[in-house]
Design goal:
Helix content is about 40%, strand content about 20%. By secondary structure, the protein is α/β, with parallel strands linked by helices. The chain is globular.
Length: about 250
């Protein structure tokens, strides 16, 4: 079992019980003491757990963002399915923005065969994967600014906005930490502001969000749902979500 698999196993156990001892974790996972200690330190450094007096406590604040490699492996099947729907919104010659989320990341394989794309992204992993597919007609721009720890994303600064303002962005493709009937949320103010800035510049915005994010409310609002052209998930939400989307003339696809 590699580190990502171990971390996801620990997160699932801690999320289920909220609080448990190191001894319990060791008995349930069969991880060695040294391996378990290293993995718990890693989770604590990200702000996802607190260790005290031999107990592991899940942090419930909505301001913690897990590392990219952890988020990437979560709900991977659902994210790939969502990306397979979103690709149909992208055509040759478009200028698009891809955020740093692991859901939007799953679109990149579909872009290899689309000619003359101009792509902006604040995702370090996304930019690298796009470069690796080596479509010679594609132009890739990564936004400048501060690299956010763990998330593999770049938080934009003013000089980045000056660059992007020279381009007409046809489509912004973004994900989020959560959604309710009225708003879309992020885990940090900087992420929320970065996505809102891009949405304000783009002609249209797609929201890609899997069903685990339904009714997940954060402290930081990105935008109200009427600012999105369409929302794509792997399954439909409850009727109150759909009624709200229909009221704002937002298409919900699955």
């Amino acid at each position: 079992m590699d580190k990502t698999e171990r971390i996801n196993t620990l997160i699932e156990l801690i999320q289920t019980k909220k609080c448990l001892s190191v001894k319990e974790l060791s008995q349930k996972t069969f991880f060695s003491t040294s391996t378990l200690r290293r993995d718990l330190i890693y989770l604590e450094n990200q702000g996802l757990i607190t260790r005290k007096h031999g107990q592991i406590v899940l942090n419930t604040l909505k301001t913690n963002e897990a590392a990219h490699n952890i988020r990437k492996s979560a709900n991977r099947k659902e994210k790939k399915y969502i990306a397979s729907i979103a690709k149909d919104f992208i055509g040759p010659g478009m200028c698009i923005y891809l955020d740093s989320s692991t859901t939007v990341y799953e679109i990149y394989p579909y872009l290899a065969s689309i000619e003359n794309l101009i792509i902006f992204t604040n995702g370090l992993n996304t930019a690298q994967s796009l470069a690796d597919i080596a479509n010679p007609t594609m132009k890739i721009f990564i936004t400048g600014g501060e690299i956010k720890h763990f998330s593999s994303s770049v938080i934009t600064q003013q000089f980045t906005n000056d660059l992007i303002n020279h381009f007409k962005i046809d489509l912004a493709i973004c994900s989020a930490h959560g959604i309710d009937q009225h708003f879309v949320y992020e885990t940090s103010l900087s992420q929320a502001m970065t996505k809102k800035q891009i949405m304000d510049l783009a002609e249209e915005t797609l929201l890609l969000i899997d069903s685990s994010k339904f009714n997940q409310v954060g402290f930081f609002k990105i935008n109200s749902i009427d600012n999105y052209h369409a929302i794509i998930s792997e399954k439909l939400p409850s009727s109150d979500f759909l009624d709200s989307a229909n009221m704002h003339d937002v298409e919900w696809l699955c």
